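Batch job 17 of 40 flagged for manual review because the log was empty.
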Amino acid sequence: MSGVRPGTAAPRGGTAARGGAGARGGTGARPGGARGANRAGGEERALTSVAAGDRFHGEEPEHTPRLWHVTLSVSGARAPLTEVRRALEQLAHDHPFLLTSRYADDHAEIRYWEEARDLHDAAAVALRLWGEHRQTAGLPPWEIVGLEVIDRATYHQRIAAGYGPAPATPVGVHPF
């Protein structure tokens, strides 16, 4: 791993890769330059070496998982309500992380907490959920029509402000 703090610029003519492909498959470079690239012409940012395991004040390490609240909405051709309910109950049984599912004969909404390193990872898992478990849970052949992924702090801010599902919303599978 290089001794460059993620998000800092390398001196001109040098490189500041994060030790390979990086967490998101890139090299750590950002379009339009790194943070702090708006400095006066010729002014360069000094590189700082950071020992493995050290943290900057107030920062969490990138590899530490966080909790993300996910709402996945799916929709498609009408299906018998009893089959939709049974399929969602099977999905909840197979994956007990599901908090609540609401359904109708042509759409459903699934809410749950996902532990992931960042929003990109949480969204990727959510986007695969319905398709990967369609056969095993007997889910209808619906498509994903909506996805919301928010961090824990944002979820709690919404609840405190009176937005979003009430905390007393019953866990389980329920009709709309």
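Reviewer: the log was empty due to a logging misconfiguration, but the result itself is present. Strands lie at 66-75, 98-103, 107-116, 143-151, 172-175. Unflagging and moving on to job 18.
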